[in-house]
Design a protein that fits this description.
Blueprint: H1 6-12, H2 19-37, H3 52-55, H4 61-64, H5 75-124, H6 141-155, E1 160-161, E2 172-173, H7 177-192, H8 195-216
Antiparallel strand pairs: 1-2
Helix pairs in contact: 1-5, 2-5, 5-6, 5-8, 6-8, 7-8
Length: about 220
C-alpha cells in the first residue's frame, strides 16, 4: 500500500509553484537586499511593521510587513526563504492555492494586529519594549515561517518528522512543532523585549493551525 511521506514532499518540493508564491519570494528577497544595501534607509522601510501604525495611521503596514523580507544578504536569510517556499508549497498541496493564499493573508493581518496590540499593552503597563527594532521577530519571512510550520503541523498532525539528519533521524511527532515554535517565540520575546513580535508569532501559530484544520476538514 502506498503511503505518503509529507516531510519528504516538502524537502523535495511538490509540483510547479503558482505565480503568487513566486511574487511573494521575489518580494521577500527584495526586502533582504534592500536592507543590506541601505540599512534603515531603504524606501522599503515604509512597508515594515513599526509604531508608525498607530502614531501616524500607517495601517497598510499591517499587510505589507509580511511581504518584505529582512535579515540582509546572509545564509540564514536564504535558508528562511527556502523554508518559506517548501512550507507554502505544502500548504498548496493540502489546502489548494486559494486556501493557502487566504491562510497567509489572513494570518499576516491577524498576527500584525495582535503584535501591535501586545506592544501597546506592554508599553502601557511598563513592560519590556524592544527599543532596538520593535516587531523584528515577526517581520517578513518570520511571520510566514510561523504560519507555514503551524499549517504543516496541522495537516500532518498524525505523521512524524524523521529521516532527516537535522533531527538525527528521530521520529518527532509533527504536531510538536507547534509548542516548540511557541517556546521559541517566548524565549525571543524575553531575551530581546520584543513582546509584540513574540505575541505576533504566537498568533500566527494559532491562525495557521486552526485555519488549516478547518479547511482540511
Amino acid at each position: 500500500m502506498f503511503r505518503r511521506n509529507p516531510w519528504q514532499e516538502v524537502i523535495s518540493g511538490v509540483g510547479e509553484s503558482p505565480p503568487f508564491l513566486k511574487l511573494l519570494l521575489a518580494s521577500l528577497a527584495l526586502g533582504c537586499v534592500g536592507e543590506a544595501v541601505a540599512p534603515g534607509g531603504s524606501p522599503l522601510e515604509l512597508l515594515r511593521l513599526s509604531p508608525d501604525v498607530w502614531e501616524h495611521g500607517e495601517v497598510w503596514r499591517l499587510v505589507t510587513y509580511g511581504l518584505v523580507g529582512q535579515g540582509g544578504i546572509s545564509a540564514w536569510s536564504v535558508m528562511q526563504l527556502v523554508l518559506v517556499y517548501w512550507l507554502v508549497m505544502q500548504m498548496i498541496t493540502w489546502l489548494r492555492s486559494s486556501g493557502a493564499r487566504s491562510v497567509i493573508l489572513g494570518g499576516v493581518v491577524f498576527s500584525g494586529a495582535t503584535a501591535v496590540l501586545a506592544h501597546l499593552v506592554s508599553d502601557g503597563l511598563g513592560g519590556p519594549v524592544c527599543e532596538w527594532r520593535p516587531f523584528w521577530m515577526i517581520q517578513g519571512q518570520g511571520v510566514l515561517v510561523a504560519l507555514g510550520l503551524a499549517s504543516f503541523a496541522a495537516t500532518n498532525r498524525y505523521s512524524t518528522v524523521s529521516h532527516t539528519p537535522l533531527l538525527f533521524g528521530l521520529a518527532i511527532p509533527t504536531r510538536w512543532l507547534v509548542p516548540l515554535q511557541l517556546l521559541m517565540a517566548l524565549g525571543g520575546a524575553l531575551a530581546t523585549g520584543d513582546v509584540g513580535g513574540g505575541a505576533g508569532i504566537a498568533a500566527a501559530t494559532a491562525w495557521g493551525w486552526t485555519q488549516s484544520m478547518r479547511r482540511q476538514s
